[in-house]
Amino acid sequence: MTVQHSPERTTAPTPSDGEVHAAVARARDAALWWGALDFTDRKGWLLEFRSRIARTSASLIDTVREETGKPKDDALLEVMLAVEHLTWAAKNARRVLRERSVHPGLVSINHAASVRYQPMGVVGVIGPWNYPVYTPMGSLAYAMAAGNAVVFKPSELTPRTGTWLADAWASLAAPHQVLQTVTGDGRVGEALCRSGVDKLAFTGSTATAKKVMAVCAETLTPIVVEGGGKDALLVDATADLEAAATFAAFGAMGNAGQTCAGVERIYVVEEVADRFVDILTSRVRDLRVGDADDAQYGRMTLPKQVDIVRDQVEDALARGGRAVVGGLESVRAPYVDPIVLLDVPEDSSAVAEETFGPTVVVNRVRDLDEGIERANASKYGLGASVFTASKAAAERAADRLRVGVVTVNSVLGFAAVGALPFGGVGDSGFGRIHGADGLREFSRVKSVTKQRFAAPLGLVTMTRKRRDVAVARLLLTKVYGR
Ligand code: NAD
Known about the structure:
The structure is a single chain. The protein is of the alpha/beta class and 482 residues long. The protein has three domains: 17-227 and 432-444, Aldehyde Dehydrogenase, Chain A, domain 1, CATH 3.40.605; 231-417, Aldehyde Dehydrogenase, Chain A, domain 2 (3-Layer(aba) Sandwich); 452-478, no CATH class. It contains 16 helices and 20 strands. The strands form five sheets. It has a seven-stranded mixed β-sheet, with helices on both faces. Strands 5-4-3-6-7-19 form a six-stranded mixed β-sheet, sandwiched between helices. A hairpin with an 8-residue loop joins strand 1 and strand 2. Helix 3 packs across helix 4 and helix 5 packs across helix 15 (435-441). The longest helix has 26 residues, at 72-97. The protein is globular, with a radius of gyration of 25 Å. The structure holds nicotinamide-adenine-dinucleotide. Residues 126-131, 135, 153, 155-156, 185-186, 189-190, 193, 203-205, 208, 211-212, 226-229, 260, 302, 354, 356, 382 line the site of nicotinamide-adenine-dinucleotide (NAD).
């Protein structure tokens, strides 16, 4: 069967600004109910939501396939990862977010001190099209588990996938609109930024993130940004080259390269470079590309992305790079066959800018340290992979790579680990989704002290005694000055 994929034909309502505000107002009502539930009750609802998604996933998978053009198996995998995160968030919110006591310290010994993580209220989530279930779920699940209601604006290319998720929630808890979807383009996203949400979780390109941040700045609405990437994969001389090339092929070509933390640059140590390139070539050369059910990846979801791929390949070749797999002829919209470019100048757009297509640049380096240096030269800093047999080298790379996630001897290792926070540095964004940090990202932190008995030193008074000040002076010089 060939899928009828056509994002242009995916139509969905475009709400007015007033309608977006009304959705946020409904969410605020729902948040009162949801935020007042205890963790155990919320966990029950969220696990029910999880089961509902899993039980009826066939139609979600079909919707993702129709809207993005990705193979069915990829859509299935994405849904599986999303429910894994939903499960983790549901099961761990209480442990991470329940009130915890902290030691008050010497000066405040008469107080009991504690930290509370309270729901923020309503979280706006703006999502991309490349993983239209998995990516927003990294915000939805963690925001909801932290006790917030969510208004979700999916990409204009994947509105039905977004609506499917809100409908799945509504089928469980219709009167409580804890999760709603508003469809539409950037204008609707902007309205959501201006709607008075208590936090905005944005996933998308760095260029849009800057616009979102500027609008959120008007109302000092806090945001978390999951932006683009230009992830590097490093291959050490000691690496298992078969494994490195096999994972590199998946990291670079999977989902037609439309993966924020996909492999876009490979730095391979000179002495194993030829052998590595040979194996990589054999892994990607014959990939099946298209809309057929047995395709290994599909079309480019966003038509204009094809031009970016073409421009970058053209630039790389014009500046001395060599295509060892494919070339300009591989760009045959709406598909792009695999392209592997060798020895491309570091300042060319194929190395410096996000490609978001099934192309990868392989450049040789003297040693792993040079690979780390080149990887870190990017303005992006989302993820990186390193292949090495040396534990010490792996540790050094994990320490020194300027990114949010590092995978050793694999690719995208973080993706299914609910406990691991995910996010980047630099142009890849800030803040974290997933894991305990992801739950806290959607919480309002409140510190509470309760005086248990009168202070031994009367310092918080307008009538301090000379004796108490003398003891304070002694503390300062003798205890802290030790
Ligand atoms: P995009 O920036 O074009 O759009 C993202 C979302 O922002 C869409 O929902 C869009 O409608 C909305 N939007 C556009 N203009 C807006 C505005 N002015 N105000 C508010 N919202 C606005 O990104 P995309 O093409 O949908 O997705 C691809 C990008 O997303 C790539 O750069 C990719 O690396 C990145 N991405 C990052 C992650 C991550 O977790 N770091 C995950 C997936 C994708």
